[in-house]
Amino acid sequence: MSVSDLRQAAPVGTRLDAFDAVDRSAPYGVQLRQGQTAAEAFRRDLLGTGQPTSVSTHDLVTLPYPSRFGLWMAAVTPSPYVSITNRMLIVRWPGNVLVFEPSDHERGEYTPYFARLNDQTPALVQKRVVTRHATVVENLAAAGIAPEEVTYLAFDHLHTQDVRRWIGTSSEPAAFPNAKLVVQRQELEAMADLHPLQRQWYQPDTYVDLRVDAIAGLDGDVLLGPGVALVATPGHALGNQSLVLSTTDGIWAVSENVIAVEAMAPEHSKIPGMAKGARTWGREVVLNTNTPEALADQYNSVLKEKALVDRSQRDSRFPQFLPSSELTASRYFPGTKPTFTTGSITHRST
Ligand SMILES: [Zn+2]
After folding, report:
1. From ligand 1's centre to the CA of 237, what distance in Å?
2. pTM of the model
């Protein structure tokens, strides 16, 4: 068994084809406009599929992340780090439970980048800047969901993720015995032969002994349930995908292509340097770029996400978007306080 074998994993869901209108061989400027136009068609398609029964958001961990990655070429903060909060979402529809971003943050610490950072950070400092809110299993239990009820697990991408505890290996039972991990095939292909620009962020050794039948491999966009879609948004990682939800508040998207909602509308940001930095470089968005493997793709994906979603109900200057790792105010990291925080998506069908 090797990581390459995982590429045989069969897909799930119903293929959504609105973004097939984007010609991936066209110049990036052309693809950008095609993506924005196709987003209109995608919205109509998704709105016609109904809505999930419920959506809830649960905090996992708050931890430091380099400013130079999270607010790429924009912020002028002297703080080398910002604080981000990883959250998971529980999406339910009849007969199904999707857990999006179920990060096993205990095992995520073995990712080369984090292992190095931990070695260099005194325990006392770590205690101050890292807050563990709850584990995935604790959050599900608090939501009244049994592990057997979970049918899908998905991440926006597999940086830092070790999924062995969730879907099991030949020597470890699965915490979620009926769940399929839904992942873009491109992400599995990358993991099978990582490029030096990617290596710091993955744990490929933890994928060699997974069950192929516990994985669903996607080639693009699918509808998993009513109003519940996974949309390929390459860039932050080439196999990146966004969760797109149709709710009573309209359409939402969730991903890690940016770490703050204001990174999608930097002209309204009060973070020092953000508005000016974006203006100076002529950019409409500020990317989250720890692996600069596909920056123009990532830029186009964020514009696509922005075109897919509705405006925030709380502040219409901002898109209705939840960064799965969201910038969080921290007294240890001055000059990084977000102007607007999404925090959660809460939905119950009426
Ligand atoms: Zn990442």
Report:
1. 7
2. 0.96
